[in-house]
Automatic annotation (TrEMBL):
Protein name according to UniProt: Heme chaperone HemW
Statement: the UniProt record of this protein carries the keyword Iron-sulfur: yes
InterPro entries the UniProt entry points to: Aldolase_TIM (IPR013785), Coproporphyrinogen-III_oxidase (IPR034505), Elp3/MiaA/NifB-like_rSAM (IPR006638), HemN_C (IPR010723), rSAM (IPR007197), rSAM_sf (IPR058240)
PROSITE patterns documented for this protein: RADICAL_SAM
UniProt KW keywords: Iron, Iron-sulfur, Metal-binding, S-adenosyl-L-methionine
Domain Radical SAM core: residue ranges: 61-295
Annotated source species: Roseofilum halophilum BLCC-M91
Amino acid sequence: MSNSSLATKAARRLASLPLKQIREAGIWRDRSSYFLNIAYPSMQAMETISCADVYPYEVNKCDQKTVALYIHIPFCTSECYYCHYYKQFGRSPEQVDTYLDAIEQELIIHKERFGKIYAASVYVGGGTPSYMTAYQVDRLFQVVNNYITLLPKAEVSFEIHPENGTLEKLRILGEQGVNRINIGVESFNDTLLVSENRRHTASEAVETFERARALGFENINLDLIYGLKDQKVFMWEESLSKVAQLLPASTTMYYLRLKRGTPEFKLWKKSPETFPSDEDLLLMHAMSFEKMEGELGYIQNPVDWFIKDDFYFHTYQDFNWRRSDEVELLGIGASSYSYVNGWQYYNINDVKLYQEFIAKKTLPIWKGEFLSNEERMRRTVMLGLKMGIDRELFYTTYETDVLEICTQTWEELSSLELIDINHKYINLTYLGKLFADEVGQKFYSDDMKRRMALVDPDLVSTTWPKFNPYR
C-alpha cells in the first residue's frame, strides 16, 4: 500500500465504513466474479432472435421516433490486451468505406419503419472511431445528418484514440457539430501503456487533449482504468494527479473487468500476483473519490463518471440507463446494442455477416429479449441507480412508486447504508457507489437470477464472432 497522503486519506475513509457488515450481507467485489451491469439480462443469457421478432412487418411502424443514437465503428490498428469489445484490426480504407455503406443502409431501413428520426443524443464508439480517415469521419456525419434530425442542444460524442486523433479529424468533428470528445487515455504511465499495447504515450494523450481544447472543444472526457497488470497504487495516484493538472470537463475511471479470452485474462490466470490485489483495487477506487470529489470538487454522476459541473452531465448515458423507456436507444453497426419498444437486442457481431444482412435489406438482429413491464422497471432501477433514481420520473414512466417494487430490497440496502432515500430521489451513498454494480444486481428477478446462474462462467464475451450461431 502507498504511504501517500491521498492513499492514507482513502484508507482512513474505507476504515470508517461498515465494510465487514456489507460483506457478510453478500455485497462485495472480487476479480474472479465481478460483473459490470450494462444490460438486463446479460447478452450471454439472451436468446437468438431475428428482425421479425422485434419488428413484425405491420407492427411498430410510426411517423416519427426520438432516440439516443449509438454507432459502432469496430476498427482498430491493433489489440489492447484488456479489451473484449467487437473489433477488427488493420482494415483498409476501402473496407471501412464498405462498412460505412452498410451503416447508411441500416439507417435507411430504420427510417422507413420509424419515419422521421430525432436524436436526443449521438454516441460514436468502437473499436476506434478515430481509426477512420478524415474523409470517412466527415462522410459518417454527413450520412447521419441525411437520415437523423438532431434535437436542439443534443449531445454528440465521438471516441478518440491518442494514436490517431489528428488535428484534421478534430477540426472535422467540430465542423460536424460534435460537442463531446471522449479520449481513451487509460493510464498516464508509459510502462503500463506499453504492456497493454496501447500504442501511444502519456505525453501523446496530453497532446491530443490540448489539441482538442485549443480547437474549442470544452466537453472533453478522459477514460482511465484501474486494475491493469503491474499497476501499483502510486501509478494510479500519478494518473489522478495528471487529471488534476488538466482539469477535463469529465473523466471516467473504470474498474477493469477481466473478460475471459482476452490476453489480460490469460495473464491474470497465469500470474494473478502481478495484478493489483482486491484490497488495492478498493483503495484505488476510494482514491478516485477522494481526489475527484474531495479535492477537486467534481460531481460523481453517473457512478465512475466525474463531471466538473452539471453542465457536463453525460446525457447519452442517462438515456441508456435511467430514461430508456422515455428516449429509446437505437444502435447502428455490427455488435451495437438497442433498446426499442420493450426489446433489448444486439446486432450481429461480425462485419461480413452484418453487411450480408443489410444487403438483403434486413436488420442484422442477433440476440435479444422482450422485457415485461416488471422486468423493465427492474432494469431501470438496476442501471438507473448509478445516476440516481428520479422518483417522479419513474412514476410518470411506469405509474408506480419505485419503492413499491422490491420493497424488502430497498429496506435491506437502506439498513446497510448503501442508499439514501428522500421524497424526490434515491441515491447511492459513498459506500453504495463503491459497490454500485453489486447493489444493482440485488434487483434481479428470481427468474433472471436463475438464468444468469446457468451462464457458462468460462464463456468469452459474446461480442466476439467465434460465438456467432450463424457460423
